[in-house]
């Protein structure tokens, strides 16, 4: 018999809860996908004839969730085709890479990545066998045939998967050339950029001066001091908004904020330009710039996303050999209540400000994030992020956040992925788990049954639409 995924996956074993979860899921499973934050490469959609390449290009090379697990078991990243910074030799035979992946696919049992890949294989690509080392090449051929077909070209797939909104994440200095190409060709399909200025804020980064030079070039503003720096950032925000951006994104180690005087900020910026800024000055500058960014968001209306608590590039070998974003980021303990207070003292009650907070530290869910969002109209809590984008992570989030914050101080779901075909899989998991959780709340008498369908639809897509101003 052809292999099929369990239709009741992620639902409770309790008979009554499972039946109600099924009913709710049927109401929302085909609603449009709103993907307001992610990292899919917009170049995929810049040409009508673009393809996803090979199965290895689709599933392995761009997805640090996948090669992170394989590396943790001693499999060299070179053998998986992950490019080295120095241009050194890596495996080029995508069939060999796929075989390694299939031989070790058992490593993904019970993990979110395994669930996403299974969904993509069996639901989206029509694979009718479980992936093993023995059938790896047969399945590779099947996937390659699908990827070579017209309906699996990225532009066509974007529409067929019912992705209504797809937001990319782009450096603040990006010219958005791919998006401009799409527009000249008459293809937009609700693809929106997101401005991420982190490379310009981290003043002790080795390439910071080069980033500032690039900022000056693309903005047309000579960045010689802190004031001209702010003007150039505002110019970029205006450009992104003109290109359809709804949000900015800020990845910071901590939620620390603290206003600097104009003189203090100017002094730190001069030190940075001279290459002598200290780590302490960088921390102070980052805390000040979050407040500056909140002020700019009030002025231009863009939603401000703040992702807190990931210690980037923890493994120095991976960082120096393969670069950033290679699966070696590790969560740290986070604090929001005191760290965000200076920003919130200034702008927290301004109805024009919309901040979505994300963390990988679940300890602060109920103690800090839920309570902060429950009192400041400027704040919403983002969905479970990164390591907690999982069935159990979602349930912990629902249990710890919603009782205090309520449903409508949250921002729905976003997939935050680089792997395009994991988008429908991730949203499907969220819809299944949220429907199952709602079913449990109905059976406990905590939610009226007639309200549950509306809440399920809110979870599925409407909360994200509202939070990111797509309504």
Query: What is the straight-line distance between the termini?
Result: 45 Å
Put simply, the count of helices is 19
- Give a count of the beta strands, DSSP E runs of length 2 or more: 11
Q: Which stretches of 5+ consecutive residues score pLDDT under 50?
A: none
Question: How would you sum up this structure, described in words?
Answer:
The two termini are 45 Å apart. The protein has two domains: 15-50 and 166-467, TIM Barrel, CATH 3.20.20.140; 52-152, uronate isomerase, domain 2, chain A, CATH 1.10.2020. By secondary structure, it is α/β, with parallel strands linked by helices. Helix content is 47%, strand content 8%. The protein is built from 19 helices and eleven strands. Helix 16 (364-373) links the parallel strand 10 (355-359) and strand 11 (379-381).
Question: Helix and strand layout, with pairings?
Answer:
Elements: H1 15-28, E1 33-35, H2 55-59, H3 64-72, H4 94-103, H5 112-124, H6 136-147, H7 154-160, E2 163-167, E3 170-171, H8 177-184, E4 191-192, E5 194-196, H9 198-201, H10 208-219, H11 226-242, E6 247-252, H12 262-273, H13 279-300, E7 303-308, E8 310-311, H14 316-322, E9 330-331, H15 341-347, E10 355-359, H16 364-373, E11 379-381, H17 391-405, H18 422-443, H19 452-467
Parallel strand pairs: 1-2, 2-4, 3-5, 5-6, 6-7, 7-10, 10-11
Antiparallel strand pairs: 8-9
Summarize the structure.
By secondary structure, the protein is of the alpha/beta class. It contains 19 helices and 11 strands. The protein folds into 2 domains: 15-50 and 166-467, Metal-dependent hydrolases (TIM Barrel, Alpha-Beta Barrel); 52-152, uronate isomerase, domain 2, chain A (Orthogonal Bundle), CATH 1.10.2020.
